[in-house]
Structures are given as structure tokens and as C-alpha cells.
Amino acid sequence: MESVDLLWEAALEGDEHRATDVVLAAAQEHGHEVVLLDVIGGVQHRVGSEWAANRISVAQEHAITAINDRAVTALSITRPRRAPVHGRVTVACVDGEWHALPARLLAEVLALRGFAVDYLGAQVPAPHLITYLHRTGPDVVALSSSIATRLPTAHATMTACQAAGVPVMVGGAAFGADGAHARRFGANAWAADARSAADMLLSQELPAPGRPHQPVDDLPHLADQEYTLVTRGARDLVRSVYRGLEERVPAMRSYSDEQRQHTAQDLAHIVEFLGTALYVDDDSLFGAFLSWTGEVLDARGVPNRVLEPTLDLLGVELRDFPRAQRMLRSRIHADAQ
User: Fold this and answer.
1) How many of the other CB atoms lie within 10 Å of CB of 49?
2) How confident is the model at residue 336 (pLDDT cuts 50, 70, 90)?
3) Is 178 a residue whose pLDDT tops 80?
4) Is 103 within 8 Å of 150 (Cβ atoms)?
5) In sequence order, which residues have a C-beta less than 8 Å from that of residue 33 and are 6 or more positions away?
6) What is the pLDDT of residue 255?
7) What's the Rg (C-alpha) of the chain?
8) Side-chain-facing half-sphere of 23: CA atoms under 13 Å
9) CA 223 to CA 217: how far, in whole Å?
10) What is the DSSP letter of 160?
């Protein structure tokens, strides 16, 4: 769609007024929902791909997203006004999730479809969300999470909302392309995107939550404490692995302060994703993250061979953790093929 390219060019150049003109003109031609999901949504998808390929910086990524967010506001102001004719939906991002635009796009689409919508934005702490639900009494909570490391928080938030008697629909990349994690967590519904979420809420009433339960009831493997121990000891793990890497990769000893900081951050992300994979007991989640990390490092001219000794050193530190050992060995074996 030509509007996607036009909006991309305007946002990349930081031209907020031209970006707004593009989306308003496209809305006249295609309708607000198409512009929200296919034009603005299409540009946001490109943002992620361009950053991973090292063609735009983090600052540019944030600037483009901010312009798109203001373009959504322009569309919201000009959308057709209608009184809500369907139920009330609370839309929020789980605590720690800063990628709010997907949730906002859903909120706008639901409003266009005739729902009463309470949009709470990014990073909503679960206790505050529950208080809000008790005060407003929505028919559904729609929770968004883009980053897989927020899955434990998303799971806890889901169970708290359900204990409050409100059905929960979840969506976002964190839950997997097929929603597998949503099903394991006992979500009342999962939607792949905003359009299918709106279609689902229009076509069916979500089942009422079952009896209150705890996350460990959905994921009995958590009883082995591997997830808890790895996440609690993450800082010590990063420090130990960093020291080990300095011995195995002598070039690291001459790193600048900035290079040291980036390396420590990369190690922290690896440990965090390993912890998340332990939470859901999913080897493929950890493997997919490492593959993506390798591609990002390659795009930045950083040899990804440092990943192998990192996994070796993690294996040494986590030698008494059978599930972690399985995940690390699985990845090392995949790299060797």
C-alpha cells in the first residue's frame, strides 16, 4: 500500500505534520481501521525489521513510534462518533511492557467497532489494574505483551484478573505466533492481531473465568525452582560468565567501557531469556532468541561466535539445573550442525 511508504518516509524524516496528513488522507480513502492496522501497523512492523538490520538506530525507532502514536491521536480525533453499543473492554499492557502502540491500536479498533473502551497504556502494575477493574466492572480485559520476558508477569496478571471475575483476552508477540503460551496460562481467549480480536469479541461472549488458581497450577514444572533460582541469581550469573569470557576471549580485556557495558547487557538478556524459557519450559523460546541475537550481532559487524563460550560458561554455572542444561545443550547442538 502506497500509504505505508509515504508514512514511513515522513516518520523517518521526523516530519510529524506530513505523517498526519498521510494518515488522514488515507483514512478518507480506506477508512480508519485499515489505516490504523495496515498503514500505521505496517510501518511499526518495518521499524522492528529495520532496527534489527542495523539500518536505523534506537533513537530513530523511538522517534518513528512517537510520530505514529501522534498520528493515531489525529485519527482518533477525526473518527466517526458513535455511542457504544457493545460491552466494555479494558485494554492494558502488562507491567514492564513499554511497547504500548499495539495495545493502543486495539483500543482504537474496538472503539470504532462500537465497544466502550478504557485504554490504560503501557506498563500497568497488576494491583492497580485489579483496583481499576473492581471500580469499572468491564466485560473483558485485553492484555498486551510484545516481549517474551514479560510472560511470567503476564501470567500472574492474567490469574489476578480472572480471580477478580473478569475474562482475559491476550495478544502480542510474547505469547507466540500461535498463542501457545496463552493457552498454557489459561487465557479465556487469544487473538493474533487487533482485527481478529475485535472480530472475536463481536462474535462470541468469552467464557467466565474458572476457579481461582495460581501460576504453578498451570505450569507444574515451576515446582523445581529452576526459574526462581536463575532469575534471583541473574546478576551473579552475569558477573561469573563475564569473567569467564574474559579468560576465553582475550580481546575482551581491551574493551572500552562502552563495549564492556554492552557485553554485560547482552549477557543479562541471555540470562533473562533463559529464565523465561525455564518459566514456560520451552526450549524453542530460548533458541529463537539466540538465533535472533546472532542475526542482530552479525548486522552490527560483531562476531556471534562469542555465543558458544557464553552457553558453555552458563552450563558450568548451572550444572545442577537439569532443565537449564537441556536447553543449553540443545542450542549448542543446533549450532554445531
Assistant:
1) 10
2) low
3) yes
4) no
5) 109, 112, 195
6) 87
7) 22
8) 34
9) 10
10) H
For residue 89, what is the enclosing H or E element? strand 88-94
Amino acid at 24: L
Grid cell at residue 198: 475485535
pLDDT, averaged across the chain: 93
| pLDDT at site 335 | 59
Return d(Cα 331, Cα 268) in angstroms, integer: 18
* Arithmetic mean of pLDDT, 108-122: 97
Tell me how many degrees the CA angle 295-14-108 measures, rounded to the nearest 5: 85
- pLDDT of 249 > 90? The answer is no
State yes or no: pLDDT of 279 exceeds 70.
Answer: yes
Strands (E), 97-250: 116-124, 140-144, 168-171, 189-190
- 8 A C-beta contact, residue 212 and residue 163: yes
pTM: predicted TM-score of the whole model, two decimal places:
0.92
Cβ–Cβ under 8 Å, residues 33 and 109: yes
Q: Residue 320 gets which letter from DSSP?
A: T
Q: How many CB atoms lie within 10 A of CB 325?
A: 15
Check residue 145 and give its pLDDT.
97
